[in-house]
Design a protein that fits this description.
The protein is α/β, with parallel strands linked by helices. The protein is built from six helices and eight strands.
Length: 223
C-alpha cells in the first residue's frame, strides 16, 4: 500500500450542472483534495465534456486545485487554453500523442504537475521511459468516455504492479490515481492495491445520501 496520504478528486462531470458552484463548495467543505475535470473531444473518446470555461467558473467559488484529465488527441496543442496554476495536475493519455515526453514537459513548464493516463488495455511498460517526467499516473479502471460503467477486473492487479514498478524504479513519490467505478467497495480494494487518489463519481460521491455523507464514507474507505 502506498505511503502517500490518500485523497478524493470528485468528478465534476457528475456534479449537478445547474448547481455546479454549490456542489463545488460542498465538496471543498467535505475535504476534496482536487476537482477532477474530464475534457473530451468526441474523437479520442466518443463523448464531449467539460472545457476551460467550466474550470474558470468553478475557480470563482473554490480554490481546490484542478485535476484536468485531457481525453483529447494531441493534448499538447491544447494546454494553452487552460489557466494552469501551482498545485494543478494535468493528465494526458499515452495513447493520445506520439510526443508524450514533450507533452509532459510542457505541462511542467506551464507550472502544473504532470501525469500520464493509461487505458485498461495499455501495458505499464508504455511509460517506463517517462517516469522522470511524472508526478502521477492515472489508471483508467473503465474504458474512458462515460460515467456509470462497470470496473474492468484486470485493472486491480495492474494498480499493484504499477506501485511496485514505481517504488523499485526509485519513484515512491509518484501518485497513483484511479478513475472508473470507484464505489465504496471498490475503493477499499483499489487502496489496498496501492492507489492513493480516487476519482469519485456516480458510484460513490454523487449518489443518494448527499455529498457530505458520501464524501465522509468514501474517506473512511480509503484511510
Amino acid at each position: 500500500m502506498s505511503k502517500i496520504v490518500p485523497g478524493i478528486s470528485p468528478s465534476m462531470m457528475c456534479a449537478d450542472a445547474l448547481n455546479l458552484g454549490a456542489d463545488a463548495v460542498a465538496l471543498e467543505q467535505a475535504g476534496a483534495q482536487f476537482f477532477h475535470y474530464d475534457v473530451m473531444d468526441g474523437d479520442f473518446v466518443p463523448n464531449f465534456m467539460l472545457g476551460p470555461d467550466v474550470i474558470r467558473a468553478v475557480r470563482k467559488v473554490s480554490a481546490v486545485p484542478a485535476d484536468i484529465h485531457l481525453m483529447v488527441k494531441n493534448p499538447e496543442r491544447h494546454l494553452h487554453l487552460f489557466d494552469l496554476r501551482p498545485g494543478d495536475v494535468v493528465s494526458v493519455h499515452q495513447e493520445s500523442t506520439v510526443h508524450l515526453q514533450r507533452a509532459l514537459s510542457a505541462i511542467r513548464a506551464a507550472g502544473a504537475k504532470a501525469a500520464v493516463a493509461l487505458n485498461p488495455a495499455t501495458p505499464l511498460c508504455a511509460i517506463e521511459d517517462v517516469l522522470p517526467d511524472l508526478d502521477m499516473v492515472l489508471l483508467m479502471t473503465v474504458n474512458p468516455g462515460f460515467a456509470g460503467q462497470k470496473l474492468v477486473p484486470a485493472t486491480l492487479p495492474k494498480i499493484a504492479r504499477l506501485r511496485a514498478m514505481l517504488d523499485s524504479a526509485g519513484y515512491p513519490q509518484v501518485r497513483i490515481e484511479v478513475d472508473g467505478n470507484v464505489s465504496f467497495e471498490n475503493a477499499v480494494r483499489m487502496r489496498q492495491a496501492g492507489a492513493d487518489l480516487f476519482v469519485a463519481g456516480t458510484s460513490s460521491v454523487f449518489r443518494e445520501g448527499g455529498i457530505a455523507a458520501n464524501m465522509e464514507k468514501l474517506l473512511a474507505c480509503i484511510q
